Amino acid sequence: MADSEVGREYARTRDIVIVFAVLLVLTALLVTVLVEAWPPAPTPAPDGRAPSAAAKTVHLFGWSPTVSRDTCLFLVVMAAGALGAVTHVLRSFYWYVGNRALRRSWLMMYLTLPIVGALFGLMVYLVVRGGLTSPLGGADDVNPYGVAAIAALVGQFSRETAEKFRAVFATLLAPAQRGRDHAIPPKVSSIDPDNGPPGTAVTIQGDGLDGATSVRFGAARAAVIDATDTLVRTTLPAGATTAPPVVNTPAGSAVSPEPFTVD
After folding, report:
1. How many angstroms separate the CA atoms of 249 and 254, rounded?
2. Could you list the residue ranges that cross the membrane (predicted)?
3. Is the peptide bond before 257 cis (omega within 30 degrees of 0)?
4. Residues 81-101: what's their mean pLDDT?
5. N or C: which end of the chain has fewer CB within 10 A?
């Protein structure tokens, strides 16, 4: 099957400005939700009994619902997870734009990753509440700072979180049968640029590259800056020689069909 040409062209200035504006607006909205939904500290009862968490009125863009502390915690972890993902998106975004290597096919990832971060933050919060706290403990026993910090880190490292979930539950659940939806073997289709001196930022495209551990340029090995299923970012290391780059992944190695020429 021929590779699709959809989204292969580089992002235009208009695309970059629109995505950047959306990310800034989304950041402001998430910070507002995080601040407004932050649960108040439990107040001691007048008779000296254990403190209880009162409901809170949350003011969100003309909507002012009164929610419980549990609901506030759900909102906090989802907003923190999305903010962590936005941090990762902005860092990757300025790297690609600064190196003039941003392709239009990546724009959808930048817009959907905050949603993934929010959902991962919520999932980890449910795991923590279900397994690491007392089954009789309520929302009063949860430190919002701790769960917000965990959710933000999970959102920022969503790919690593997904890999950890897969590693943990692979030992508990039966492996899925191989089929058409099984992970494909790694393959390199192109490199950009295909020449340059040591220190050059190199983008390698292909399939099955998620989890790449290193890239070899001749006898020199380069660390992976970022890796997804279709793309690997790295920097040409010192000592590299002209040769087809080799991407090393847990599923095997993939050799570029074209060499990288070291200037």
Report:
1. 8
2. 16-35, 73-94, 106-128
3. no
4. 88
5. N
